[in-house]
């Protein structure tokens, strides 16, 4: 059984999570039979190991993991492999397919460019 | 004269900036006569005050400022107003139109959802 985890940074301000919740809900609406959950690096819960191990206990065998980050810095390049190792210790049979961060998607960049130009009143 | 500043977080890892540079270059290609620059909160340069004051010195009178953040947490809600005040002290005539962060855009969220679903092999 498959599932999708959207991995985001997290913040102290609860308003911060809104776009990530909208992303999760959009995906759930489009794929009602796919389990889709958020996971956070810090400040918010669940953590990535928490949700992944809980999914494994629920019978999930394959997780697609997408970092909902624009830039791939230390959080994606350094912190994430450590979290994956932690999950592997606790749920060794679970397969996790880590995908490039959303900022690597050309169509996401194009949508951001559209937004920026729409907000810029060109003289 | 108008200009667009894309305000991003910044990171120690230089690879982090790639999606933001792609966004800037996409916008430049679409609007070759619009001055478009990146600015960073930390770790990378220029800072927002540096680029805004430099634009004012170049004759820019109106800046559209877009936070290239998915979540609006402390950086957008607390740090950014302080930077705007700092700019106002140095370039009081400069008009800056702060727009909602890119993560507030429905079409950006839709593009991220498309990307996530394309990367999720549904059984």
UniProtKB/TrEMBL annotation, chains A, B:
Keyword annotations of the record: Lyase, Metal-binding
Q: Which domain of life is it from?
A: Bacteria
**InterPro entries, alphabetically?**
CbiX-like, Sirohydro_Cobaltochel/CbiX
Claim: Amino-acid biosynthesis is one of the keywords in the record = no
What Pfam families has UniProt attached to this entry? CbiX
Query: What's the name of the protein?
Result: Cobalamin biosynthesis protein CbiX
Species source reads Undibacterium squillarum
């Amino acid at each position: 059984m498959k599932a999708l985890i959207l991995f985001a940074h997290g913040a102290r301000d609860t308003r911060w999570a809104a776009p990530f919740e909208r992303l999760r809900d959009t995906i759930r609406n489009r794929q009602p039979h796919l389990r889709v959950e958020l996971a956070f690096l810090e400040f918010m819960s669940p953590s990535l190991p928490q949700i992944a191990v809980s999914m494994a206990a629920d019978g999930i065998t394959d997780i697609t993991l997408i970092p909902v980050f624009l830039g791939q810095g230390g959080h994606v390049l350094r912190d994430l492999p450590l979290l994956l190792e932690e999950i592997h210790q606790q749920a060794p049979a679970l397969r996790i397919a880590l995908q490039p961060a959303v900022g690597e998607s050309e169509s996401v960049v194009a949508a951001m460019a559209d937004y920026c130009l729409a907000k810029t009143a060109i003289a």
